């Protein structure tokens, strides 16, 4: 076992100093100049792997920048850290856990040990149980309490137990059973549950309670409401036919009233936001079938192998991760846009928000030192071309630089006239416009009135990555997700942080538990928060006591 390097924050590394000096040296360079200077730039600055083509030529870098970033990655022991992850070492140091989402897509004959035990056979045992269950639901063998087949599947979960499943369902909708309905309840707001089930027949509805811990307040509250909804319609004995669980907590599942026979397990070495290809993907498998689910795992696996074995100079997730560090930490870009030019990927930015921000929104290095540099940027986005008609204005002419990832497919799933050509023309146009802008001279040549010119100049030099794949298949989706997972890992290694814990979400949960009984206490019950929180609680108490007007 190798020792995890906990020692040196990024800013004390030699490579950091070199990159700072390099940044000063190239400060005035812009993309127009870089492209004019090297007509073959696009040919040098791209990489291909696991079904993805990655053009990163429109970044504010020179080949020297990339070399320095690669040196820094080596100085941060990225090669060893990758091996530690794939080898099952406990690299989630603050929780003393291995980080093995890569084991979820490992082939049967691979051996990955955690505490001396090979975990791969268990992974495949669960996958086989999931497949058998999915087949029984999909071919109508598994019947509800009244003998009707299951037509509706409702996943109850939140965070990683929701965002992966809902994203994958939307992304792979083309491959789903169109005679079944899939719903996802996450929010504690009762509207979420109500709207999800209002048109469903309980006798045809299966609930999947998805929660790694099986203690999450929102999920358990929604699960209890779902149980009551089912019980009222079909009686107590129906729970066994209409509820299954996905969790690591067998005892809590049993206590809830779900037979552990109907529980699909996973393990503490799968982080919630890295779990959509574990049993948390049960709704995905029910929707697209076991074969497509396995194709998706194959895509994840291909990217895992690419990440582990491809030289860093041609390694997609490594290069993407390094560019995120370059833009975020060195160039000061606080956010990154993710714009999939594909309607099926409409929930992909939301999924990436958790993956990236819960992983790398950290201010302490592995040894507990407060960082003195910026770590994870805000990730956000919307599908193109929709975003072009709302917020792209700011990306083109705003005062902040927003590096972006534009994702597209060479072939549409639903060819229809010129739709797809228009879609891709827009993707390419945005990348070009953001990089090269529109100059005063061009506008003058076009005869634009002088008073309008300042308003119509686009300064350009806005970085974009373009990520292209053949078609949106289950395998390509798996590859795309693994690409971002490993990019996040790369970034975390450079920043020297633990990308796999999430202590920051704890405080709000504790305070909510404290405030909850205070909301229903008598109006004069004393409060001990700050004056703002106290006053807001009192306002709510009064409104609650008075009822709706
Ligand atoms: O509160 C954050 C979090 O712990 C996420 O990391 C996780 O994905 C989500 O809550 C749901 O947790 P669980 O699957 O245990 O219900």
Q: What would you note in describing this structure?
A:
The protein has 549 residues and is α/β, with parallel strands linked by helices. It has 3 domains: 10-98 and 296-434 and 465-501, Rossmann fold; 120-266, Glucose-6-phosphate isomerase like protein, domain 1 (Rossmann fold), CATH 3.40.50; 516-546, no CATH class. 46% of the residues lie in helices and 10% in strands. It is built from 22 helices and 13 strands. It has a 6-stranded mixed β-sheet with strand order 1-2-13-12-10-11, sandwiched between helices. A hairpin with a 2-residue loop joins strand 1 (46-49) and strand 2. Residues 158-161, 211-213, 216, 219, 272-273, 358, 502, 505 line the site of 6-O-phosphono-beta-D-fructofuranose (F6P).
Level-2 CATH architecture of the largest domain: 3-Layer(aba) Sandwich
Distance between the termini: 65 Å
Task: State the name of the first-level CATH class of the largest domain.
Answer: Alpha Beta
Strand percentage lies at 5-15%
Q: Characterize the biggest β-sheet.
A: 6 strands, mixed
Number of DSSP E strands: 13
> What is the count of DSSP helices, taking H or I runs of 4+ residues?
22
| Widest beta sheet: strand line-up | 1-2-13-12-10-11
Write the layout of secondary structure elements.
Layout: H1 14-26, H2 31-37, H3 41-44, E1 46-49, E2 52-55, H4 63-75, H5 78-86, E3 113-114, E4 117-118, H6 120-138, E5 152-156, H7 163-171, E6 181-185, H8 190-197, E7 205-210, H9 217-234, H10 239-242, E8 243-247, H11 250-256, E9 263-265, H12 282-288, H13 290-309, H14 316-330, E10 335-340, H15 348-360, E11 378-380, H16 392-397, E12 404-409, H17 419-436, H18 440-445, H19 453-456, E13 464-469, H20 474-495, H21 506-520, H22 531-546
Parallel strand pairs: 5-6, 5-7, 7-8, 8-9, 10-11, 10-12, 12-13
Antiparallel strand pairs: 1-2, 2-13, 3-4
Bound molecules: 6-O-phosphono-beta-D-fructofuranose.
The site of 6-O-phosphono-beta-D-fructofuranose has 14 residues, from loops.
């Amino acid at each position: 076992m190798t020792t995890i390097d906990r020692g040196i924050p990024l800013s004390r590394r030699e490579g950091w100093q070199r990159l700072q000096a390099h940044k000063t040296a190239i400060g005035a360079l812009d993309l127009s100049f870089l492209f004019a200077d090297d007509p073959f730039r696009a040919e040098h600055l791209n990489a291909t792997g696991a079904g993805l083509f990655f053009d990163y030529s429109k970044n504010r870098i020179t080949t020297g920048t990339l070399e320095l970033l690669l040196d820094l990655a080596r100085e941060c022991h990225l090669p060893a850290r990758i091996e530690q992850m794939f080898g099952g070492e406990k690299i989630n140091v603050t929780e003393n856990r291995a980080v093995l989402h890569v084991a979820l897509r490992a082939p049967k004959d691979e051996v990955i040990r955690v505490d001396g035990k090979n975990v791969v056979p268990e992974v495949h045992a669960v996958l086989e149980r999931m497949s058998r269950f999915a087949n029984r639901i999909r071919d109508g063998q598994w019947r509800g309490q009244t003998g009707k087949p299951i037509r509706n599947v409702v996943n109850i979960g939140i965070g990683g137990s929701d965002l992966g499943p809902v994203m994958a369902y939307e992304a792979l909708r083309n491959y789903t059973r169109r005679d079944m309905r899939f719903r996802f309840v996450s929010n504690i707001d009762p509207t979420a549950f109500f709207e999800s089930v209002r048109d469903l027949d309980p006798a045809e509805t299966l609930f999947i309670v998805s929660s790694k811990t099986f203690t999450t307040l929102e999920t358990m509250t929604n699960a209890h409401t779902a149980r009551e909804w089912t019980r009222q319609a079909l009686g107590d004995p129906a729970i066994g036919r209409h509820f299954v669980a996905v969790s690591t907590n067998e005892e809590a599942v049993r206590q809830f009233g779900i037979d552990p026979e109907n529980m699909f397990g996973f393990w503490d070495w799968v982080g919630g936001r890295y779990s959509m290809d574990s049993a948390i993907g049960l709704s995905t498998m029910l929707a697209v079938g076991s074969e497509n689910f396995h194709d998706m795992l194959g895509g994840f696996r291909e990217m895992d192998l690419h990440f582990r074995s491809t030289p860093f100079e041609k390694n997609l997730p490594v290069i993407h991760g390094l560019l995120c560090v370059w833009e975020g930490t060195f160039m000061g870009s606080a956010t990154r846009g993710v714009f999939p030019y594909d309607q099926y990927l409409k929930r992909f930015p939301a999924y990436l928000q958790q993956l990236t921000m819960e992983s790398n929104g950290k201010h302490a290095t592995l040894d507990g030192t407060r960082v003195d540099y910026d770590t994870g940027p805000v990730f956000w986005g919307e599908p193109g071309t929709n975003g072009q008609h709302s917020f792209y204005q700011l990306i083109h002419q705003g005062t902040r630089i927003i590096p972006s990832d534009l994702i597209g497919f060479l072939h549409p799933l639903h060819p229809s006239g010129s739709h797809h050509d228009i879609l891709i023309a827009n993707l390419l146009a945005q990348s070009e416009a953001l990089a090269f802008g529109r100059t005063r001279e061009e506008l003058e040549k076009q005869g634009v009135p002088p008073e309008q010119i300042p308003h119509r100049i686009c300064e350009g030099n806005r970085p974009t990555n373009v990520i292209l794949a053949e078609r949106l298949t289950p395998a390509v989706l798996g590859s795309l997700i693994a690409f971002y997972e490993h990019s996040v890992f790369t970034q975390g290694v450079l920043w020297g942080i633990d990308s796999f814990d999430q202590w920051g979400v704890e405080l709000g949960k504790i305070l909510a538990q404290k405030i909850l009984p205070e909301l229903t206490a008598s109006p004069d019950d004393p409060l001990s928060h700050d004056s703002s929180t106290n006053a807001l609680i009192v306002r709510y108490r009064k409104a609650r006591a008075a009822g709706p007007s």
